[in-house]
## 1
Amino acid sequence: MAKIIFIIFISFFLALSVRATLDTDKDGLSDDLEVKFKTDINNPDTDGDGYKDGSEVDWGYNPLAKDKIKLPLRIAINLKTQKLFYLVNDIELKQFSISSGKPGLATPQGNFKIVNKATKAWSKKYGLWMPFWLGLNHGEFGIHELPIWPNGYREGSDHLGRPVSHGCVRLGIGPAEYLFERLATGTEVLIY
Ligand SMILES: [Ca+2]
Ligand SMILES: [Ca+2]
Ligand SMILES: [Ca+2]
């Protein structure tokens, strides 16, 4: 009996996880997310504007409007779990592993805005390059890709998931560029 209950239990969770990754119309947006964005799970281009639902949402455009209407984009960063969330219309679209400030140099918590951007910023204080820089709080700290020292040494991605930075929020190779391309100055960033 216990075994049967266990199997039912496991099947239930498997069904849930399959649904989360299932993309019936193959438009790059999972069925689960289509329900949240109110798009059609059987139509790859719900508003018929030539752009797939998945691509519109990914770039922050309203998939239900033919006009190029932007949806609100926000970033939330959980220091405890070392995760960054990319929110489109307050729906979690992506999450990435980060490395925030180490004890003594902890990343500040609160509501911030992206105040400046640079494809490659130089930290005078620490003598390192910070690719895909998104400056917060007057540019005093920011979000950026794993830093590179002048001799070419790159911080290891094994540090992601652990707070080892000087106060910035470090992202892996890929996620930093992904966010840099999508987020404009003025974007809200909540750190908690
Ligand atoms: Ca889909
Ligand atoms: Ca669709
Ligand atoms: Ca569309």
## 2
Amino acid sequence: MIRLPILLVASAAALSAAVAAAQSTPKTDTSRGELLYSTHCIGCHTSQVHWRDKRLAIDWTSLTAQVRRWQANTGLGWSDEEIVEVTRHLNALYYHFQPPRREADVRRDRTIVAGGR
Ligand code: HEC
């Protein structure tokens, strides 16, 4: 009869080890954009920057322009693809703008962005 509590303790320990293992499993759905943003950008601004009354990002194009501007400001030299990934991440998180659907829109965005600041 003294064996039962020991068994219970042992199985409880095994269970909590399993739970801990499950919790420490790295998230696999972290997007590249999220990773880039949290590594390089989040240090400076909280989410409040993206909720300001007079925010600079008013649609997909201007949001892309801001991301491009900030990665340039911080000397990161991101590729177009990386800029789009981070734009997508911020858009999903805060802005919810309509992303460009056609290639022509993307090209137009690039032109505007290149001509912007
Ligand atoms: C040196 C600090 C700093 C760093 C680093 C920084 N930001 Fe910012 N960011 C700001 C400040 C301050 C503002 C608001 C004022 C402004 O736009 O000039 C801002 C504004 C923005 C906005 C516009 C928000 C809005 O809707 O008005 C975007 C988008 C943005 N940052 C993205 C980024 C991204 C992407 C990075 C990483 C590549 C980044 N920022 C890195 C300080 C920073």
